[in-house]
Amino acid sequence: MSDTPNNLEALRQRIDQLDSDILRLISERAECARGVAEIKTQDDPQTVFYRPEREAQVLRRIMELNHGPLDSEEMARLFREIMSACLALEQPIKVAYLGPEGTFTQQAALKHFGESAVSLPMAAIDEVFREVEAGAVNYGVVPVENSTEGVINHTLDSFMDSSLRICGEVVLRIHHHLLVSDTTRRDKVSRIYSHPQSFAQCRKWLDAHYPQAERVPVSSNAEAARLVKTEWHSAAIAGDMAAKLYGLTRIAEKIEDRPDNSTRFLIIGNQDVPMSGEDKTSIVVAMRNQPGALHDLLEPFHRHQIDLTRLETRPSRSGVWNYVFFIDFKGHHDEPRVAAMLEEVRLRAAEVKVLGSYPQGVL
């Protein structure tokens, strides 16, 4: 027992030395990043510093090399922040997201780009598209589907008239909490604010615990959290970021009906992303209105052994009862077998639009 203080002191000294080593290595990495920026700028003053495929490769490598005790995803998140800070030395990334501040979309943006990115809230999905198209920001983040409630049609429709490319994806586990303010009389809650999607995702819990409370849909969970600050008899359904932003208290945690509730977000930009080794491609296909059209569309995917991950149908804007198909599949459009498959689809379809090939979400 007498050796315990000495052992503890030795461990603390070792931690101090390791912290110094980590600090030195991070600084050295930042200097390398600055050198990369200088070389890129000399070759092309308009160069794009952020490389989604390179970042995905680095994070995958870190996860493969990790042997614990920290979880591989946790280690990758640490490296994401280091990379985000180093990239900000080259050129701070501006990212538009579906706001207001405190939404799950902002949380997804920071998860993908790191805390060093400059995130700017937009009032609607089409505004995110416009900001990226105008060059006011480098990238945009928009929700595309939820595991409980399905596809977000507004996002799919926005791609119909846009020239933007999908540059990445991020999947966020969605946890909803019931939040109140310091002035809320918790035994008198008669009104609950939230986004309609969140109400749908927490329907069973609300029916069991607050069957008489009025459910008031608002534009976002962050707006719900803001409203609660002004009323003594109200609560909000929102996430951790909104709770922290508005200083609210959780009186019930993780009230979503499905524990695996998650939302997929897309990163939109103006660049084509090279192959990373583990990629997805998204396309929009307009088929001629004839019997067997869907079979004709899907047959090349089967024959070339292309793995479909999503197939959605939306009404076409060109005519009544005509439809377009939004398709996600594994692979990059520069891969020979994918390119061959796409060429066959083009011969069978009225129109094919490649929305982008991009790295599969790492985190």
From TrEMBL:
Keyword Transcription regulation: no
Domain (Chorismate mutase) ranges: 2-94
Pfam families, sorted: ACT, CM_2, PDT
Protein's cellular compartments: Cytoplasm
Name of the molecule in the record: Bifunctional chorismate mutase/prephenate dehydratase
Catalytic activity, as annotated: prephenate + H(+) = 3-phenylpyruvate + CO2 + H2O; chorismate = prephenate
GO cellular component terms listed in the entry, alphabetical order: cytoplasm
UniProt key word Nucleotide-binding: no
GO molecular function, one term: chorismate mutase activity
Annotated function: Catalyzes the Claisen rearrangement of chorismate to prephenate and the decarboxylation/dehydration of prephenate to phenylpyruvate.
Protein's gene: pheA
Highest rank taxon of the organism: Bacteria
This enzyme's EC code(s): 4.2.1.51, 5.4.99.5
